[in-house]
Amino acid sequence: MDIQSINNGFNIPSRTQKKPVLNSGESEKKAMDKLDISEQAKNMGKVAASDKKDLSEIKAKVNSKFYDSDKVIEKVAENILNEII
């Protein structure tokens, strides 16, 4: 069996290639990337007061073992199955 390589036009440098050495008077320009984050994305990190209330209710239910009941487990499993089917 003969395996042929695929030449897709990319030139992959070898690990032995080195960057050119600059003289002491030369300075290398550094590329600066810019990141723009929308206001909507910035606001996603902020938790609304109503969300904090819901979180405290959930914590209370976890501490009271509410989610350990068979009825809740069956309902969660049913919802998961409906999501994946």
Question: What kind of sheet is the major sheet?
Answer: none
Low-confidence stretches: none
- Helical coverage, percent range: 40-55%
Strand content range: under 5%
Question: In total, how many beta strands?
Answer: 0
Ends: how far apart? Answer: 43 Å
**What is the number of helical segments per DSSP (H or I, 4+ residues)?**
3
Structural class: mainly alpha
Average pLDDT value? 77
Radius of gyration based on Cα positions: 29 Å
Name the helix and strand elements from N-terminus to C-terminus, one letter apiece.
HHH
Which of globular, elongated, flat, extended, rod-shaped describes the shape?
Answer: elongated
Descriptive account of the structure:
The chain has 85 residues and is an all-alpha fold. The chain has a domain of 39 residues. The chain contains 3 helices and no strands. The longest helix is centred in the middle third of the chain and has 15 residues. It is elongated, with a radius of gyration of 29 Å. The two termini are 43 Å apart.
